[in-house]
Hints:
Elements: H1 2-10, H2 16-33, H3 41-55, H4 63-78, E1 87-90, H5 98-104, E2 110-114, H6 117-129, E3 137-141, E4 155-160, H7 169-179, E5 183-194, E6 200-202, E7 206-208, H8 211-220, E8 224-228, E9 236-242
Parallel strand pairs: 1-2, 1-4, 2-3, 4-5
Antiparallel strand pairs: 5-9, 6-7, 8-9
Bound molecules: S-adenosylmethionine (SAM).
The site of S-adenosylmethionine has 21 residues, from helix 3 and strand 2.
Amino acid sequence: MYQAIVRTLRGDYNSVRYRFLTLPKEWAHYMLHYRLRGKDWTDFYTHRMNREAELGRGKRPSEQYLARAEEHLAHLKAQGMQPHHRMLDYGCGVMRTGRAAIPYLSEGRYVGVDIAENRLQKGRDLLAEDGISADRYEAFTVADCELKELDGYSFDYIWAESVLTHMPAPEIRTMLRSMKRLFAPGGQFLFTFSTAEEYKRRNVKDFWYPHDFMEQECRAAGYQYALVESGTNGYTRMARLTLPDRASA
Ligand SMILES: C[S@@+](CC[C@H](N)C(=O)[O-])C[C@H]1O[C@@H](n2cnc3c(N)ncnc32)[C@H](O)[C@@H]1O
């Protein structure tokens, strides 16, 4: 009986406490300190990510989490990435994908960007710990979805793993618009996103979009859109964007 009540109260969440205490507090924090003060989503999420990295300073992510880098590289290779190509890891976090991609790519061909400097620093430390020299890659912060920091760069492969899953639609729209100027001829953008029949937002920071919505947004921004086989399961999908007016490299 007690178990049944707890299950009902918990709903889809991990615990009753999370649902009725932690989550409302997070919403209140977001509304009071960000929305009502005219700050945007990126301000909020940057602060959140920096804080999480600060709290986890010195803690190494699980080897299982880090090992997914090999799968990421396999997807990129399956889409044709070769060592001479230039790669942008958008929302690279602790450069998990980088730990496989950097040694594979020629020196200087990997660029990782993130909104959270603390996450990047953790990534630099982890790469150094594992013998990957900072001379082989670039990693720096972007302030928002305009991506002005990347002016003058161009990429054959743009990769965003579990990044659009934490972006509201207006930010995705801005990012899609900004990203177009970073495509090298024949370039492609691979990203994962969470799908649901209807738009859903949970835990303040997790966003699900209907597949048709994502496709329409990408096409409206001027991209060619295709789903690619990614080995992802459940509600996660991987899309590939290309630009129609760019001849193959
Ligand atoms: C779930 S983590 C994934 C990190 C990495 N892609 C990986 O797979 O290990 C999401 C990352 O995206 C970053 N991020 C979220 N929104 C972003 C944005 N608009 N521009 C750049 N990075 C962003 C977050 O700071 C965080 O490091």
